[in-house]
Design goal:
About 55% of the residues lie in helices and about 10% in strands. The chain is α/β, with parallel strands linked by helices and about 180 residues long.
């Protein structure tokens, strides 16, 4: 199987890539950047992923541009459902690249995170797979959560503290900010 793997960052790519290689799946990575805020964070994640990809021989496709405004405009007044939009945008971009590149299917490293809504990712992935005539590869990569963390720390990888969007950044740091003022 020739699979395009949406890779959100270096640390989250470690375990899924290991599993896919063990299954003899031909994997190429795809980095989607429009949701990541601020731009310096996006570049830091891209750099870390690039270094890891070079180290393990993972060929990558790097999304160009930085359409943060489109992301924000698409979720404004729907902030509580922003993840649905974000999953869809990332998986749709991955499916479109996979279709154009004649891949058999696609998947995502979002399935590695214990903080993501797997059921929603599966539903969106399967719907897009039907729309684009591809397979959506699901595997519960959360089983390797600790292993991925251990390896990323051993490699000295940059490990981000929030999912990526401006809202997840606020959720991560604003709570801690308020706790410190008590």
């Amino acid at each position: 199987m020739k699979l395009l793997l949406h890779a959100c960052c270096g640390p989250c790519t470690i375990y899924p890539l290991q599993v896919l290689k063990e299954k003899n799946i031909d994997v190429m990575g795809f980095f989607y950047r429009h949701n990541i805020h601020p731009f310096t964070e996006c570049m830091r994640r891209e750099e870390t992923l690039g270094q890891y990809a070079d180290e393990v021989g993972l060929k990558m496709i790097w999304q160009q541009g930085y359409e943060l405004e489109k992301f924000i405009q698409s979720v404004v007044f729907r902030e509580k459902n922003r993840c649905r939009y974000c999953y869809h945008a990332r998986l749709k971009a991955t499916a479109m690249v996979a279709k154009k590149g004649k891949f058999d299917g696609f998947s995502t490293t979002l399935l590695y995170s214990k903080f993501q809504n797997h059921q929603l990712i599966i539903e969106i992935g399967q719907a897009l797979a039907r729309e684009y005539g591809l397979k959506f590869f699901y595997h519960d990569f959360r089983e390797g959560w600790q292993q991925g963390i251990k390896i990323s720390k051993e490699h000295g990888m940059y490990r981000q503290q929030y999912c990526g969007c401006i809202y997840s950044e606020r959720d991560r740091y604003y709570k801690d900010h308020n706790k410190n003022k008590s």
